[in-house]
Write a structure and sequence with these properties.
The complex is a heterodimer of chains A (291) and B (298).
Chain A: H1 2-31, H2 37-41, H3 54-85, H4 90-103, H5 107-121, H6 128-152, H7 156-164, H8 169-198, H9 201-205, E1 220-223, E2 227-230, H10 242-250, H11 255-288
Antiparallel strand pairs in A: 1-2
Helix pairs in contact in A: 1-11, 3-6, 3-8, 3-10, 4-6, 5-6, 6-8, 7-8, 8-11, 10-11
Chain B: H1 2-47, H2 50-55, H3 71-102, H4 105-120, H5 123-139, H6 150-174, H7 178-186, H8 191-202, H9 204-220, H10 223-228, H11 246-255, H12 263-297
The chains are: A mainly alpha (291), B mainly alpha (298).
Chain lengths: 291, 298
Amino acid sequence: MDAFFKGLGLFCTFIGLVVLCVLLVDIIIDSLPRLKKDFFLNFPSRKPEEAGILSAWVGTIWIMVVTAIFALPLGIGSGIYLEEYAGKNRLTNFLELNIANLAGVPSVIYGLLGLGLFVRYMHLGRSVLAGGLTLALLILPVIILSTREALRAVPFSIREGSFALGATKWQTVRHQVLPAAFGNILTGIILAMSRAIGETAPLITIGALTYIAFLPQSPISSSPFTGLEFSLRGFLDPFTVLPIQIFNWISRPQKGFSSNAAAAILVLLVLTLAMNALAIILRHRYQKKTW
Amino acid sequence: MRRRKLVLKIKEMLIERLLLLCSLLSVFTTVGIILVLASETFAFFREVSVFEFLTDTEWTPLFVKKHFGIMPLLAGTFLTTVIALAVAIPVGLISAIFLSEYSSLKLRNIIKPVIEILAAVPTIVYGYFALFFLTPFLKTFIPGLSGMNALSSGIVMGIMIVPLVCSLSEDAMRAVPMGLREGAYALGSTRLQVAIKIVVPAALSGITAAFILSISRAIGETMIVAIAAGQQPRLTLNPLVPVETITAFIVQVSLGDTPHGTIEYRTIFACGMMLFVLTFIFNVISFRLKKRFQEVYE
C-alpha cells in the first residue's frame, strides 16, 4: 500500500513534466516550417507564409518598457513602506488585505479597469501607454509581495547595527537593507515581468488591435535636415503584442496560420522560460548567502 | 549643524510620505476597479432588470432578439471550473504529499521549480495546446466530442492550476510540527498512515485555502476557455459540446467593434462585476483560512 502510494505520488509529480514536454514537442513540430529570418522581420499578412511577428515583438518591448517604468518604482516603494515603515495598525492591515485581494483579481478585470479608466476616462485611446499602464497595475501586487518577502529575509541585526552608528531610517534602508535584499527583489521583478509578457486577456479587453502593420514611432529618429529628434509620440500609437498576434492566428481557420501561431508561441515560450530560469538561478545564488 | 539636521529630518519625512503614497496606489486600484465596474453595471441594470439577468435562461446580447440571462455563462464557468478542479486537486494534493512526506529534500528542491514552470507558461499557450493537441487526441476515444468543448479546456486549465494547489498545500504540510509525525511513527504507523491520518488533517485549513484559491483562479481564467471551449452560451452540463464562460464572453465582445455607451458594451462590465464578486468571495475565504493555519503553528 505504501509502495503503491509512492508510485502514485511519483506519477502525479511527473505528470506535469510529461505534459510540458509533450506541449513543447508539439509546438516545435508545428512551428518548424515557419521559423526563418523573415518571420521575425515581416509584418502580419493575409498570406500565412508571408506573415511575421515584427510588429508583435516590437510592441511587446514597448509595452514591457512602459510597464516596468510604472510598476517597478511604485511596487518596490510600496513594499519598502509596508515592510520597513508601516506600524502595526488598522491602516497597515487594510493595505495588506487589499493587496492580497488585488493579487487574486482575474487579469481580465484589470482589462476592464484599463478600458474604463485609461482608454475612455483619460482618453489615452488604445495606445501603448494605456496597455502598459494596465499591465503595470496587474503586476503591482506581485512586485509588492515579492519585495516584502525579500526585505523580510534581511536579518534585523543589520538594521540595528546601522541605527547604532547613527544612521537615519532611510539611510539604513537605502545603504544596508536594499543592497542586502537586492538579489531577491530582482528575482521577484523578473518573475513579475515574465507574467506580464504572456498576458493576453487584459490587452484584448482594452481593445488592442490584432492587425497592426506598422510600428510605434521610435523615440529617437534622425533626418538629414533636422538632425537627431526625440519624440514621445510613439507611446500614444496603437500596438499589438506577441500573445495577441498568437490569439489572432489561432482563431483563423486556415492551416498555415496555426503553424504561424505555433512559431510565435515558441518565441514567447523561449522568452518566458528564459526569464524564469534566470530567476531560479538568481534565487539559488542569493539563497546560498547565509547571514 | 542644526540646520543640516533639520534638512535631514524633512528629507526623511518626505521619503516616508512618498513611500506611503506608493502603497496607497493599490487602494486606488481597488477603488478604480469597483467604480468602473459599478458605474457601467448600474447603467446596464437601468435597461435590464436584475430579475431577468439572474433568471433568464438565454444569453443573446449580440443578437437582434436580445436576452440577458447570465445562467448559461455561469453554467459554462461552473462546468470548466469543476473539470479543472477534478484534475488539479487530486494531482496537486498527491504531489504535495509526495514532496513533503516521501521525497528527499534534494529531489524536492529539483522538482519544485520544475512544477512551478507549469504556472509560468502563458495561458494562451495552454489554449493552443487544448485546441490543437488535446481535443484531437481525446476525439480518438470520444467520437462525439466537438472541436470546441469544456472537457479539454477544463483539463488543461487543471494542469495549469496544479502548481498552485501543490505549492500551497506543501507549504501547509511543511508547517506541521515534526513531533506529530514522530509520535505517529513511534506508534508503528506507516508513511502513508502518517501522511493521511496526521499530516493532512493537521494541515487541513491550509490545504482548503489552496483549494478555494484554485476555484477562484479557475473562474477567472480567460484565454484557455476563450480559445478552446467555444463561444456559444448554452445552459448545459455536457462537457462535450461548446460552451461559453463569463470571461470568454468578455473577450468575445472586446474583439468586436462595440461602440462605447451601448448595451452590448455595458454587458461586459456587468459580467465583470459578476466575476469580481465571485472571485472576491473565494479569495477572502481562502485568505482567512490561510491566516488560521499560520496562527496555529507559528
